[in-house]
Amino acid sequence: MNIAVVGTGYVGLVTGACFAEMGNTVTCVDVDSKKIEGLKQGKLPIYEPGLDNIVINNYNTGRLLFTTSLPDAMTQADMLFIAVGTPPGEDGSADLKYVLAVAKEIGQNLDRYSIIVDKSTVPVGTADKVAAIIQAELDARGVQIEFDVVSNPEFLKEGAAVDDFMSPDRIVVGTASARAQERMADLYAPFVRNHPRTLFMGVRDAEMTKYAANAMLATKISFMNEIANLCERLGVDVENVRLGIGSDQRIGFHFIYSGCGYGGSCFPKDVKALIQMANKIDFDPKLLNAVEARNNAQKHRLFEKIVESFGTDLTGKTFAVWGLAFKPGTDDMREAPSKVLIERLIQAGAKIKAYDPVAMKVARDEFPAKFFDEGSLALAEGQYEAAIDADALVLVTEWKPFRHPDFKALKRLLAQPIIFDGRNQYDPKQMKRDGFSYVGIGR
Ligand code: UDX
């Protein structure tokens, strides 16, 4: 099949590369000419395990092409995926300006039956808007061309996006058109050959499915964080509670890890957007509001715990921070709990020595330059370098090398043997045996 994917961000690039890997010809389109030139030279704008090989190999075989021109891409392709950003607007609702601009350009250039696929996460009703814009452009041109707009949300986890795309749990396709359904089924058939799991539904149902999936996962996390905060006050270890409830198959073990809050480009943005969708139709989303409020508060828990031990004035204190990315396996720091923690510690007078296995470069841009200039924030060469003479170690992101560190070395290096464990990675009993003062979440 001949496909165009508009937007070479996280979703677009993974989608384009994986379709090409399955033998399709894919043109990736982006308005950012620097990005496109970089991609042609094998330089990826994001870090995602396995993606660089797929991009480079398929580019070299000619199945994956890069251009800044959507009309050029449309001369070949008749399946047009919209995978541009939908950043939160001022009120938290998804800003559709990029999606709708692409729709307009498609309408200006459409010359034969095509399927337009909304891949970006977009509010319920967006496919109808996209269709209306394309139709308006066709009317303005005085041409009659058939097209279908399909909703096909992605469910990719950063750090595992290629695997998730290649072996999906399910593929959701929202369309009322039999013709579009058949083409979409055909396109995805190789991904689900041994275990068909493509779900067809209405276009609005598919749009809502994406938000409901992320909101459900965010709810599980906020629920566990609430329980953890209760456990702390009641003398309970939330890690035992997690095992005790996860073994009930109706609850399950996934996404019930308490910690210092969820971050990333999806959960915070999508929960906010769903709340805005509800507000716009005068529906009070009590539960979603609580999920968001719990998470916003949870991002401050580590700071609060540090203040409980060290007092509110942290002048003269230095903290080692392990992990800056919002989760392991990515260099993404969007909405990362590390940012809230580090900003609050610095405001309280502390100095920070931070280390992350891959997000160091990104971190330079994520914090105000003055933090670095004033010496409030330093990026350490390695995890143990960060610990040298620090008054405490704070674990924020549970990268594998942090999970079983050399505690003897840590004890030697730290000025005080204190560990704040924002991801409950260490055993409190062992910490005590090894002579550390240990503070986890919910235990
Ligand atoms: C998520 C969804 O999983 C994916 O299906 C969707 O398409 C995009 O959003 P991602 O943002 O990559 O993917 O992150 P995910 O792995 O789901 O983790 C989100 C956040 O939740 C992280 O900050 C993580 O640390 C946190 N988390 C996760 C917890 O605090 N506890 C848990 O039990 C699980």
UniProtKB/TrEMBL annotation:
PANTHER family in the cross-refs: UDP-GLUCOSE 6-DEHYDROGENASE TUAD (PTHR43750)
Domain named UDP-glucose/GDP-mannose dehydrogenase C-terminal: residues: 320-428
Its EC number(s): 1.1.1.22
Entries under InterPro entries matching the protein: 6-PGluconate_DH-like_C_sf (IPR008927), NAD(P)-bd_dom_sf (IPR036291), UDP-Glc/GDP-Man (IPR017476), UDP-Glc/GDP-Man_DH_C (IPR014027), UDP-Glc/GDP-Man_DH_C_sf (IPR036220), UDP-Glc/GDP-Man_DH_dimer (IPR014026), UDP-Glc/GDP-Man_DH_N (IPR001732), UDPglc_DH_bac (IPR028357)
Residues forming coiled coils: none
Similarity comment text for this entry: Belongs to the UDP-glucose/GDP-mannose dehydrogenase family.
Regions crossing the membrane: none
Presence of the UniProt keyword Oxidoreductase in the record: yes
UniProt keyword annotations, A-Z: NAD, Oxidoreductase
Annotated source species: Pigmentiphaga daeguensis
Reaction catalysed by this enzyme: UDP-alpha-D-glucose + 2 NAD(+) + H2O = UDP-alpha-D-glucuronate + 2 NADH + 3 H(+)
Root EC class: oxidoreductase
UniProt-recorded name of the protein: UDP-glucose 6-dehydrogenase
